[in-house]
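Please, structure for the following, as tokens.
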Amino acid sequence: MTPYSPPLRDVRFVLEELLEHGSLSLPGFEEIGPELADAVLEEAGRLASEVWAPLNAVGDRQGCRRREDGAVTLPEGFAEAYRAYAEGGWNGIGVSAAHGGQGLPETVASAVQEMLHGANMALGLCPMLTAGAIEALARHGSETLQARYLPPLVEGRWTGTMNLTEPQAGSDLSQVRTLAEPADDASGRYRLRGQKIYITWGEHEAAENILHLVLARTPDAPEGNRGISLFLVPKYLVEEDGSLGARNDVTCTGLEHKLGIHGSPTCSLSFGEQEGAIGYRVGELGRGLNHMFTMMNEARHKVGIQGIGVAERACQQARGYALERVQGRRDGAPCAIAEHLDVRRMLLSMRARTDALRALALTCAAQMDRARHARDESERQAAQARVEVLIPVVKAFSTDQAVEIASLGLQVHGGMGYIEETGAAQLLRDARIAPIYEGTNGIQALDLAGRKLARDGGAALSRLADEVEATAEALAASPELRPLGESLAGGVADLRTAMGLVLSQGADPERGADAVQACATPFLGLAGHVLCAWQLGRSALRAEAALADGTHDADFYRTKLAEAEFGLRQWLPEGRARLAAIEAGLGGLAALKPEHL
């Protein structure tokens, strides 16, 4: 099994050469230069590779265990590894200094997240959910809630969860039935009763306390989404002085038995089996879904980052095996399988996709930084519009591709990939959940095609397409890169055509909603391919310039050129084929009743 190595050189390439640290020169980030960013990444890489990564297989083999008292035992080393992360201050690196964090840019925080998830996805889920809880409280919590609960969350002494799903309410949260009744003591507290399922890191003893953010209804709330509010329910009640008090009425009733991420305790939770779980309202009554989506959007971007981390580890695992495994002959002599061109094709496909996905996710993170910190209001608004278009692509496309990349990694191993001892199978099993949670990828596609595109008539995505076209023109101006420019120009032209089709089909008063549903997933796939090809094109331009300048790192830049050649000439055409599916419209999807399928 190949040890995990943090992809520091590739991350630096994106931050320093593609983004040019643009997100680091915003107000509040003036003191953050490449040297400090490098130091942060180096230390995070050391934690990921030396402390977290060795536990990845351990967590997969041992899993979690629920004890008779409802407590959960983590795999060996997990609690200590989490505490090393928290004690190192990593939980607060992307949190505003106003809330006790280090205030580093989202680009740097996202790069750190990728390394942690690449090292150990199951363990990385814990701080990922905590980051979302911090964001939700910082945005919507009262000053009293923030003062009491944010500091230990930011420090990592406490962790956070997101409680949406119930047995009868999966993605349709309008069916949530958990009840929050005002307590009869005039304290402003509520007592919650209900069941939640699929709660990631819902019970554990790695941290002192767990703060559950729970969607629930008050007794007089209307039906549907407008009746849902958001509540903070601590595992242990918190006294006025901040010390921990009695155990709250929250019980882990079971652990889910999952395909992968066995080291992550995914729990069923029962609120209020006795007197009712004490909770505190976060934000306005009836706006729980709106407030929760603050947490969801943070989580969706990080799920995309998570997929990239697993894809990176699959690349490293497959490459290491292919260089060592001797099988077959080349030029009459025994050779490693990496010498065979079909294996090279798989390895290059994995590497090109992973690097393109990373660049796109960090580009989105840079826009998040601008949306939060740019001096000019119009710049902040434009950046936020880009973030809202990019997040469903980053979440869905990255995780779909991560599954394919992990599957290719298993294929490189051949029969040994199907054997658990190599570790290739775990990566595929772990990656498979990411297209499902935090809103399935079908929901992400509907969000992009049915909401984000229609909301502004495609303006935000069109502005991104303008930048893609500019990169295509720059590529075409180079004799060596002209074929790449032509391919990218064709891809972005297809994307513009698809945008027009989706908008026109969606405007049909009778079948518009069905038409958008039919083409949403192909449309997101096309957008993902084109936007990732754009990143590869930008990488090729930078690599060509570096080689012309006589760089000392020529092999690195030649690899970037090879990735761009493969991605733009062989991978992008697969994405462009989705235009035909969009043009087909409803087709056979509406021809049969479900029972006839």
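Residues 356 and 566 are 12 Å apart (CA to CA). The chain has a mean pLDDT of 94.
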